[in-house]
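Risk register update: the risk of archive-format incompatibility is retired. Evidence:
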Amino acid sequence: MSVLQWAASSAATLLFLAAVFSGAAHAGFACRAPQEMTRFRVKLPNTARTVQSRAPLVIVAIGSSSTEGAGASDPAHTYPAQLENQLHHRWPQLPVTVINKGVGGELISQMLGRFEHDVLPYHPQLVIWQTGSNHVLKYENLEGYTDTVREGISRLKAARSDVVLMDPQFAPRVLARRMHLPVVDSIAGVANETNVAVFQRFAVMRHLISSGQYSMQEIISSDGLHMNNESYSCIARLLADSLIAAAGSKAENRQPIESVKATSR
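Archived output:
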């Protein structure tokens, strides 16, 4: 081998190794958010009692398209499905079921109307209620929105379910609407008033982008609105962390399932 051939081969090898280590560093760094952004300000007592007693834990995820899984490559890549996998991994001795009751395009009043047949019959210890995105897209005020959130929380508490609200996704079509911050703020305000938890999806996704872990194109589908396999996986992982902390429990498998770069958007 000539000196020039050796140099070219060495340079190619170095470039390959640099790419490998760069990719590994990105994979290890991706899907991180500060605890003050992901930890709930309230406990989840019904969830905690169930975990401590090793009884079956039932979680209902109700919401619109980003609960149903628009943008995911298949049902296994929706956030509820991946949340169930994360919790099975962390609590291997605990029976956990996450029931996906997302319906694309629904407004909050329609979700509330489904509580009687899509939520309460399952007697869930925990309900994750994703809401706000469609209100942002369709309305120019908060009229009726916060009152409906309050009513829903009241019904869930009466049924002895813990409540976690999930606010809108950080996506171009959401950001283009002037109501996105008022809706995010109203969800936080009602949660504080009623003493329930909020998973700050909007803030978390904004942080994932602003911190350089992802670009918008890596976590939002080409329609500029819906999440994808990558972001559903990350949200499920961080939400599992939040639930475990709020339940006052330690994960038996301390290492979460790592977020893996999605092969299909």
